[in-house]
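Replying to the earlier thread about multi-chain prediction with a worked example.

Input:
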Amino acid sequence: MRGGLHLGSALATALAIVTAALVIVGLLSAESTEVAAGSDIVLQIVSITIALAVLVGIWNLISVHVGRLIRTRKGWIYSLITLLSAVAVTAVYVMDETASWTGELEGEKLSPRVFEAVQVSIESALAGLIVFFLTYAIYRLLYKRFTWTSILFMVAVAIVLLGWLPLEDDSLVDLREWLMTVPVLAGSRGLLIGIGLGTVIVGIRALTGYDRALREP
Amino acid sequence: MTLENVDLIAGWAALVLTLMIFSYVLADNFLYRIAVHILIGTAAATVAITIIEGVIIPWVNRTVVEADTDEAGAIIVGIIPLILGLLLFLKSNGLLTSIGNIGSALLIGAGVGVALVGVVSVTLFAVITEAGESVNDSNALDATILIVGTITTLLYFQYISLRSRDGMPRRPLPLQLVALVGEGFIAVTFGALYAGAILTSLTVFGGVVQDQLIFLLEQLGG
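Result:
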């Protein structure tokens, strides 16, 4: 309903305000008070709800891939691989928990090995791959946007990287140390205080019902 | 099949998957995408199993299954998140969206509460106190740079502006100068953090290559 008050949204906004107020008062109160206990229960409920929200997200992921596979849309082969991987991990876990392995594998748990071989390997490789993107991004920065700030950025990158080299002369190491403990620390503090103030403003907007997140039906 | 065979298969699988991911350096290709989708599938299953086994089942056991019959409050508290989860599920399917918002409202409300208390009591007070202490501990030049850097970086992100003659909003000149200094500090800060990210990913890359080379050499008898 455009311009009108939607009852569901009004209720949701009111609930968000009350919950936020209860949590704030509870966290700032002494541990033994009733308000603190109430706030603790709310936080426990929220933790479980977040866990369930993640499960809803995974359900959504699976249903999207099943839909793509059934309709054989573009990229269906990747959906098949995703689903097969999920099924395989679940099957190994079920076999572990029901102690279904036979022969020399009897009583063993293979889930940690699968996790190590597949997930840890791919995640480590992806993390290692970032070094190529970071280096290429610096090249692109200098090539496309040659400004005084990009030069400062590059100088800072060079000092920090060269400062780690085990050279006989310690001047670069000292320069890196100074850079990290004075200008970088000052900049980081400015950014952190800015983020903190921004969070406070967003929080106050939500507390006073100005936040739009819950207004749309 | 023996455990040694399982480890051998796992080792080869890890090597092949690593190479599939590194093939992205050449170009975006189907091997890379296959590896990424394997990761998505396995990660989704692992997270789902961990949440069900480690969070949901213990919660239901503690609050509903093992609760005494006279502990109605505990049972209600145990059921509430399950109902909220169901509402979120209905919302994700486009059903009963406005009722599903109640689950989101609780999450947002609690998130705002925790964030506000955390930011004010931990981040803001700690950073401001630390800033004051480090200024006292530094020499005059460093202390000046610390103060100027912190303040100008903070002021860079304010958007108070005046309407100029051509109707366009512009910052007042003093503020433009302050913001310029702040921009320099931000560039240096991001440069140092960027270099840190390069070093970290380089270390990870070295570790991955080393692990796979050791496995390969062991298989080749090297």
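The longest strand of chain B covers residues 162-163.

Feel free to reuse this layout for your own posts.
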